[in-house]
Specification:
The complex is a heterodimer of chains A (378) and B (305). Chain A is an alpha/beta fold. Chain A has 13 helices and 13 strands. In chain A, the strands form 2 sheets. In chain A, strands 6, 7, 8, 9, 10, 11, 12 and 13 form an 8-stranded mixed β-sheet that branches. In chain A, strands 2-1-3-4-5 form a 5-stranded parallel β-sheet, sandwiched between helices. Chain B has a two-stranded antiparallel sheet with strand order 1-2. Classes of the chains: A alpha/beta (378), B mainly alpha (305). The interface between A and B is large, with 37 and 46 residues.
Chain lengths: 378, 305
């Protein structure tokens, strides 16, 4: 009998020990774009995130490709929540996909940490206690571009962006800070690659500057065609068309262009230096801002896990909200609607040896939050 | 809206159209001769662009890169025809659609394995950089004029090939009666391989020429493929002349509509909503055009009734 009780006790201890270990584990579902157009962005976010959590035995990650299609992203999220039982979701690049996945995810009590998309709806009226954006609210970089346009003395801008939620946020953001007038405003088709017609309009419009938000391959086409058109207007845009992944494809057409970003590889702090060095030695290429966002998302998750168990939702949420990790961007904190307060820099495209890259030339907006905080009732 | 802007947009439309022609000519030939619906045609566009980018980065020559795009896509076309496509001619269209759709996925992932997911660099040659003044006030990109020129050159070349050469006679005979020409002792499977490779190489050339001003990346062919199908439906399936007229029609309608519709709507709407409504209708315009043409001529402009 005595033997039996000790065995039982031992079993109980073992059981509780293993459940103790389990409760410290976090299962992450990463849904991101890994194939087709725009896959460079998803791959950078994934690689950044995996670098941050590398060697951490308490985190397991399931990665799935959304093919940049909202319906597929929704299916993947359902499967991850219902059959894989993930605790945290992350990874989505595109705002239209985020709008399809995030509300249902957070309403089922899961956490969603956005490494990229930050549509205005999820920052304002549609904000949620379980939704955290580690990158930016969509308008942010464009607001900084508008601010930069003022200081550069632009009076009459021609602005264009694709016709989808983030495109609308982009032009809204630019207009919010830009004090001059608009020579023209165009929404282009998402995924459009040829901008001959738009460039002809720019030429005829009498603008003194051009602002554009065309992420991924769209921006490559625009920049090349714009420089070939012989129009000599200054161009300003967010970092998305000048990030490390696509600068090589744009080529010298990008040299000298001013762009705005919350991150740059030359931000001078310890975390960033380590990140840039580790990323290069792990993957053999320079990191982009997307990679830095994925990395910060991973570090944020680890910081919260060291403070609370993921099953204890309220404590875990508080731990996330503290953002107690050393960000590659330096100073980083969350505003009340769980979107970052951070500096936004103005960068210039330069050549380092033979490689095109970016250099910070000034701070565009200091400790910048977003315009939707007051709309968020949380 | 000035007449200069209108003329420039017209040129843009024609340039877009000639590029679509390179895609749709191959598609319509393959359908006309072999009766094959080839969804993987866009993949040859991508293969052409990647071959060009590879050769351009190795040699630095744009002209060698163009040659590479033609031959790269043609080689891929021959291999794929012999290994896979050949087995599909006797199957019904649903099987062909399924198999060639699978090919899209295989080829896209294959290219991503070889070249990575990041866009490649391919630039236009120095001699075609910049603009050229045509007429008084109109300045136009030299490279886009080059694309128009190449498109028309190839259209003329195809016309001569189809109507004046022995191969052309066989192709036309194949379109009319497949059983008969094989009964006459013509090696039908060789003819099919040649036609398929010809179509693939034209798509590859289009990919390289467009890749130089847009971006060379995985999945670049599929948006163009949809437009190419619209073109051959409008032009009449199997007709090269139909493909040429259809391409120019689609190119011009799309470009002009996208730009001038928002301007037109601004006359009686507020600017912001005119912009968004106008650009939405603008992107539907070619499909509306297709529907209208199909109502009047159900088999397309030059299709066999």
């Amino acid at each position: 009998m005595k033997k039996f009780t000790t065995t039982l006790a031992a079993l109980l201890i073992m059981g509780s020990a293993s459940s103790f270990a389990d409760s410290h584990k976090v299962k992450v579902g990463m849904i991101t774009t890994l194939s087709g157009g725009g896959s460079g962005l998803g791959i950078d976010v994934r690689d950044g995130f995996m670098l941050a959590v590398k060697g951490n035995k308490n985190i397991s990650v399931i990665t799935k490709d959304d093919q940049r299609k909202p319906d597929i992203a929704v299916q993947l999220a359902d499967k991850m929540i219902q059959s894989d039982k993930v605790d945290v979701l992350t990874g989505i690049i595109w705002s239209n996909l985020a709008m399809a996945v995030v509300p249902a995810t957070v309403n089922q009590g899961k956490f969603y940490l956005s490494p990229n998309a930050g549509p205005s709806k999820l920052a304002g009226k549609g904000c949620h206690k379980n939704y955290f954006n580690v990158a930016w609210q969509n308008d942010n970089l464009h607001e900084a571009a508008g601010g930069y346009a003022n200081s550069a003395g632009f009076k009459n801008s021609f602005i264009l962006a694709p016709n989808y939620p983030a495109g609308k946020d982009a032009l809204t953001g630019y207009k919010r800070y830009f004090k001059g007038s608009l020579a023209g405003e165009i929404y282009t088709k998402l995924g459009q690659k040829d901008y001959a017609a738009e460039i002809a309009q720019i030429r005829a419009s009498g603008a003194d500057s051009v602002f554009f938000f065309l992420p991924g391959g769209m921006g490559i086409g625009f920049m090349k065609q714009f420089s070939q058109s012989g129009i000599k207007l200054p161009v300003v845009g967010p970092a998305f068309s000048f990030d490390q992944g696509i600068l090589k494809a744009v080529g010298d057409a990008a040299l000298g262009v001013k762009n705005t970003s919350q991150w740059s590889k030359d931000i001078d702090n310890k975390a960033n230096k380590k990140f840039v060095k580790d990323f290069q030695s792990e993957y053999g290429r320079l990191p982009s801002l997307y990679a830095s966002q994925g990395y910060d998302t991973g570090k944020l998750l680890i910081s919260a896990m060291s403070k609370a168990k993921v099953k204890d939702k309220d404590k875990f949420r508080d731990a996330l909200r503290k953002a107690d990790f050393s960000s590659t961007r330096g100073k980083f904190s969350f505003d009340k609607n769980h979107h970052p307060i951070q500096d936004i820099y103005v960068r210039e495209v330069i050549k380092e040896g033979k490689i095109l890259t970016n250099k910070i030339i000034s701070v565009g907006l200091k400790n910048h939050s977003n315009a939707y905080v007051s709309e968020c009732k949380m | 809206m000035t007449s200069i802007l209108f003329f420039e947009q017209l040129l843009n439309g024609i340039q877009f159209g000639t590029m679509l022609f390179l895609m749709s000519a191959g598609l319509t030939l393959i359908f006309g001769v072999m009766g094959l619906i080839n969804l993987a045609h866009g993949s040859f566009y991508m293969i052409g662009a990647f071959s060009a980018a590879l050769i351009a980065s190795l040699t630095g020559s744009f002209w060698l890169a163009l040659l590479a795009s033609l031959s790269g896509a043609a080689i891929a076309g021959v291999l794929i025809e012999i290994i896979i496509i050949r087995r599909l001619y006797r199957r019904d269209h649903l099987d062909q659609v399924l198999a060639t759709f699978a090919l899209i996925l295989l080829l896209s992932e294959g290219v991503r394995w070889c070249f990575g997911a990041f866009p490649l660099y391919l630039d236009i040659p120095e001699i075609l950089n910049g603009t050229l003044p045509i007429l008084d006030d109109i300045i136009y990109s030299k490279y886009r004029l080059f694309i128009i020129f190449m498109g028309l050159l190839i259209a003329a070349g195809l016309y001569i090939l189809i109507s004046k050469t022995r191969l052309g006679v066989r192709i036309r005979a194949g379109q009319n009666d497949r059983q008969m020409i094989s009964a006459l002792g013509i090696d039908i499977s060789k003819l099919y391989t040649i036609v398929f490779a010809l179509g693939a190489s034209l798509a590859g050339l289009a990919g390289a020429m467009i890749g130089a001003i847009q971006s060379v990346e995985v999945g670049m062919g599929e948006p163009i493929l949809i437009l190419a199908f619209v073109v051959i439906v409008i032009g009449g399936i199997g007709s090269i002349k139909g493909a040429l007229i259809g391409s120019i029609l689609v190119g011009v309608t799309d470009t002009i509509g996208r730009i001038f519709l928002p301007e037109l709507l601004k006359i009686f709407m507020e600017p912001a909503s005119a912009t968004s409504v106008g650009s939405s209708i603008g992107s539907m315009l070619i499909y509306i055009l297709m529907a209208l043409i199909l109502i009047i001529k159900p088999s397309g402009l030059f299709g066999k009734t």
